[in-house]
Amino acid sequence: MTNIPFLVNPQPQMDVSDMTSPEVFTSADQTELNHTHFSTDDESILSGTWECAPCREDIPAYPVHELMTIVSGKITLTHPDGTAEHLGAGDTFFISKGAPVVWEITQTLRKIYMIAT
Predict the structure, then answer these.
(1) What is the per-residue pLDDT for 1?
(2) 48 within 8 A of 34, measured Cβ to Cβ
(3) Can you give the pLDDT at residue 4?
(4) What is the CA radius of gyration of the chain?
(5) Could you tell me the CA-to-CA distances from 14 to 23, 37, 62, 68, 90 in Å, in that order?
(6) Which CATH architecture has domain 37-116?
(7) Domain ranges of the chain
(8) What is the per-residue pLDDT for 71?
(9) Residue 3 dihedral angles phi and psi, to the nearest 5°
């Protein structure tokens, strides 16, 4: 953990990630990358940059509170009432812990995130 303010670089050196299950990818591309910019010692607060190829996942209860800003790509979030939000580069959005949502990346997504557990 650092107590020094820092610039969040949207194009950091990324590492391979495996948070997304292989079966939810919607194309042959299963690329998933992550870079952690900040983490508390107990990992209750995390900030980073994440990139993922197109995929679709029905999430009955989102596992964390997460604020995200899309750097590139597109995502559609569908709520239980069927309302769909189409988001792209420059959009900032929040999903609360426990919220049900269908998460569909329609164009490889790169986002900057802040997570609280």
Answers:
(1) 55
(2) yes
(3) 79
(4) 14
(5) 22, 11, 24, 17, 20
(6) Sandwich (2.60)
(7) 37-116
(8) 97
(9) -105, 15
3-state helix, strand, coil in the chain (%, to 5): 5, 55, 45
pTM of the model: 0.94
Give the separation between CA 23 and CA 34, rounded to whole angstroms.
19
Residue 113 token pair? 């995130």
For residue 40, give the amino acid letter. T
Backbone angles phi, psi at 32, to 5 degrees: -145, 125
CA distance 32 to 111: 12
Cα separation, 38 vs 21, whole angstroms: 24
Q: Which residues of the chain have pLDDT under 70?
A: 1-2
Asked if residue 117 lies in contact with residue 49, where contact means CB atoms within 8 angstroms, the answer is: no
- Residue 10 has a pLDDT of 87
- Cβ(75)–Cβ(106) under 8 Å? yes
